[in-house]
Amino acid sequence: MAVIHVVEDDASVRELIRVTLQSGGFDVRAFASGEDFLASHNNEADLILLDIMLPGIDGLAVLKRLQNMGCEIPVILLTARNTEIDKVTGLDMGASDYIAKPFGVLELIARVKAALRRTHKPSDEIQAGIVSLNLSKRKAYVNGLAATLTYKEFEMLHLFMRNEGIVLTRDRFLDKIWGVETGIETRTVDVHIKTLRAKLGAAGKYIKTVRNVGYVFSPAEVE
């Protein structure tokens, strides 16, 4: 669950944002001033919603302090001053986006989700049962021990693990793994699956044959 910190001095707006985001499945912590936020800031948020027109330390000053602290958490500015200079200044200072007041709850959630998508990269590792993949190193492990796979075997296992519990046809493997190569028959898939099962050892049983269709990777049905 993504954690969002909201810095907004208007109690009614702050409550609207809190309720809206919580209903959208987010964990929300709200602050009424820039001072309160900075005093509690611990880099644990996934996203910060920051009002520009705060009493005391305003939003742009808070944003500058965050930048000076080396904070890499994405910040969306909330502004009632719907002028180009405010928006450009905030974006130039490192804000990810801005939302002009008044805003709709659907727009708020959409912009929050978009900001999170831009900043949260897919994990470099995939785990399923006792099998794990390190995508950047192209390494496969079974119970923590390295399994030596060919390029195509690794790609097949990756496809399996991204589609856990979903039946994959032989044609799907040919399309995704062999691509434009010609003269490849579906029997080739069966041969590679047999070898992959053997190399996975105890995890080879995760790969189940679905007669007349293809294969499915189902660790949950084994453990």
Give an overview in words.
The chain is α/β, with parallel strands linked by helices and 223 residues long. Helix content is 40%, strand content 22%. It has eight helices and twelve strands. Strands 2-1-3-4-5 form a five-stranded parallel beta sheet, sandwiched between helices. α6 crosses α7. It starts with a strand and ends in a 6-residue tail after the last strand.
How do the helices and strands line up, and which of them pair or pack?
Layout: E1 3-7, H1 11-23, E2 27-31, H2 34-40, E3 47-51, H3 59-68, E4 75-79, H4 84-92, E5 97-100, H5 105-119, E6 125-128, E7 131-134, E8 139-142, E9 145-147, H6 151-162, E10 168-169, H7 170-178, H8 186-200, E11 207-210, E12 214-217
Parallel strand pairs: 1-2, 1-3, 3-4, 4-5
Antiparallel strand pairs: 6-7, 7-8, 8-9, 10-12, 11-12
Task: Give keywords.
Rossmann fold, alpha/beta, 223 residues, 12 strands, 8 helices, five-stranded parallel beta sheet, Arc Repressor Mutant, subunit A, single chain
Short précis:
The chain is an alpha/beta fold and 223 residues long.
Poorly predicted tracts of residues = none
How many helices? The count is 8
Order of helices and strands: EHEHEHEHEHEEEEHEHHEE
**CATH top level of the largest domain?**
Alpha Beta
Proportion of β residues? 15-25%
Taking all residues together, what is the mean pLDDT? Answer: 89
Helix and strand composition category: alpha/beta
Q: Give the oligomer, counting copies of the same chain as homo and different chains as hetero.
A: single chain
From the spread of the alpha carbons, the general shape counts as elongated
Using only C-alpha atoms, the radius of gyration works out to 25 Å
**Straight-line distance between termini:** 27 Å
CATH topology of the largest domain: Rossmann fold
Q: Indicate the CATH architecture of the largest domain.
A: 3-Layer(aba) Sandwich
Q: How would you write the strand order of the largest sheet?
A: 2-1-3-4-5
Helical residue percent band = 40-55%
DSSP strand tally: 12
Number of domains: 2
In CATH terms, the superfamily of the largest domain is Response regulator
For the largest beta-sheet, the strand count, sense and barrel status come to:
5 strands, parallel
